[in-house]
Automatic annotation (TrEMBL):
Region (Disordered): 1-25
GO cellular component: plasma membrane
GO MF entries: amino acid transmembrane transporter activity
Listed Gene3D superfamilies: Amino acid/polyamine transporter I
Membrane-protein topology: Multi-pass membrane protein
Alphabetized InterPro entries for the sequence: AA_transpt_TM
Protein name (record): Amino acid transporter transmembrane domain-containing protein
Bilayer-crossing regions: 45-64, 71-92, 121-144, 165-182, 188-209, 275-297, 317-339, 360-380, 386-408, 420-443
Source organism of this protein record: Urochloa decumbens
Entry keyword set: Amino-acid transport, Cell membrane, Membrane, Transmembrane, Transmembrane helix, Transport
Domain Amino acid transporter transmembrane: 42-437
Family per record: Belongs to the amino acid/polyamine transporter 2 family. Amino acid/auxin permease (AAAP) (TC 2.A.18.2) subfamily.
Domain of life: Eukaryota
């Protein structure tokens, strides 16, 4: 079951590396240190805070009032609160498991999976799901960034010629062709901090403007759909939208890998401090936007709350530009582990020489790929619910619990055993049911959609 660690725990000064203890050559160690995840270990606890805020609060928060309109007050509030509690618990488990073995650090999600399930099985269980999440998020954020740019343009210049969404997605992508060349997590810390500030800002604008506008006339809190099948599919899709909003687990180990660690001062302490701060910010963003947005507009709210809000123009334009800045940072947070996987395969398996040329080509191709898919399938709400259920539920809601049970083996029928099995059951139900609603939404919109409009 045991696998060779990709990095040793530092036993010298924090941030320094001890000599390889697993039989690797100096060249192999140099390659390991060149890869994005292992390249820098001097992050502080507040890096964890804003990286996690940037990773979690994103496109999802803007779709939460729409999800409420498909769930209703009772189910909506219950799902939101349960998701916040469950994902905080599973995130705590992952922070704890990062250094559960003395002298080792599981710097990547799949390394933890290899330790829990075996070297080959762990890769097959974790890597496909993690890639679906991270690539899926990057595609959705391409759509989000393009939509927000378009809304900004249409708001500040109503009389201007209408420009296709395709071109706005391409403009948004052009930023990432440049930013994707930043080598590692710590190098994007400034971008991530700006993104975290923007997420709190536009969330505040979203619910503040809703309060200012007040309830729309004859507001209706009945479920959005009028037919029974529509209500069922809408409910399932809304579950996926909520799941999408809690997605930081897919990069949490990689974020923790940037924090220095010694036996006396393990990284889990500053990492957890940052996570707690991040989850407080998440609550401050998610709950007011969800509840106030639904309170103000009822079942007429759009899949993006900022689209529903049209006045005051300058404030809505500002909020949309904040969304653009935020998803720029979020895209980079989720892209970094993908870059690490791509570069690991190219350098270790295919024996390409590590360097600037490899990164320039590989990362440019990846950004171009996510841009192309986003331009082809810009179904924002359908993408949220589909990816949220299909991929986010396993990696966020129940895979950490399965790993915890496999590694720590808590006593049967103990509190830990019961808690983890409850999370597993709820997570599996979410994974099975939520994509159905999202896929139906995509199919319905695809029937009337003209490609590359």
């Amino acid at each position: 079951m045991a696998v060779q660690p990709s990095s040793s725990m530092e036993t010298q000064a924090p941030g320094n590396y001890s000599p390889p203890k697993d039989g690797r050559s100096a060249q192999d160690q140099a390659i390991e240190n060149w890869l994005p995840i292992n390249a820098s270990r001097n992050a502080k606890w507040w890096y964890s805070a804003f990286h996690n805020v940037t990773a979690m609060v994103g496109a999802g928060v803007l779709g939460l009032p729409y999800a409420m309109s498909e769930l209703g007050w009772g189910a909506g509030v219950t799902v939101l609160v349960l998701s916040w509690i469950i994902t905080l618990y599973t995130l705590w488990q992952m922070v704890e498991m990062h250094e559960m073995v003395p002298g080792r650090r599981f710097d990547r999600y799949h390394e933890l999976g290899q330790y829990a399930f075996g070297e080959k099985l762990g890769l097959w269980i974790v890597v496909p799901q993690q890639l679906i999440v991270e690539v899926g998020v990057n595609i959705v954020y391409m759509v989000t960034g393009g939509n927000s740019l378009k809304k900004f343009h249409d708001t500040v210049c109503e009389d201007c010629k209408k420009i296709k969404l395709t071109y706005f997605i391409m403009i948004f992508a052009s930023v990432h062709f440049v930013l994707s060349q930043l080598p590692n997590f710590n190098s994007i810390s400034g971008v991530s901090l700006a993104a975290a500030v923007m997420s709190l800002s536009y969330s505040t604008i979203a619910w503040g403007a809703s309060v200012d506008k007040g309830k729309v006339e004859n507001v209706d809190y009945d479920l959005r759909a009028t037919t029974t099948p529509g209500k069922v599919f809408g409910f399932l899709g809304a579950l996926g939208t909520v799941a999408f909003a809690y997605a930081g687990h897919n990069v949490v180990l990689e974020i923790q890998a940037t924090i220095p660690s010694t036996p006396e001062k393990p990284s889990k302490k500053p990492m957890w401090r940052g996570v707690v701060v991040a989850y407080i910010v998440v609550a401050v963003c998610y709950f007011p936007v969800s509840l106030v947005g639904y309170w103000a507009f009822g079942n007429t709210v759009d899949d993006d709350i900022l689209i529903t809000l049209s006045k005051p123009k300058w404030l809505i334009a500002l909020a949309n530009m904040m969304v653009v800045i935020h998803v720029i940072g979020s895209y980079q947070i989720y892209a970094m582990p993908v870059f690490d996987m791509i570069e690991t395969v190219l350098v270790k398996r295919l024996r390409f020489p590590p360097g600037l040329t490899l990164r320039l080509i590989a990362r440019t191709v990846y950004v171009a790929f996510t841009m192309f898919v986003a331009i082809t399938f810009p179904f924002f709400d359908g993408l949220l619910s589909f990816f949220g259920g299909f991929a986010f539920a396993p990696t966020t809601y129940f895979l950490p619990c399965i790993m915890w049970l496999a590694i720590y083996k808590p006593k049967r029928f103990s509190l830990s055993w019961f808690t983890n099995w409850i999370c597993i059951v709820l997570g599996v139900l979410l994974m099975v049911l939520a994509p159905i609603g999202g896929l139906r939404n995509i199919i319905l919109k695809a029937n009337t959609y003209k490609f590359y409009q």
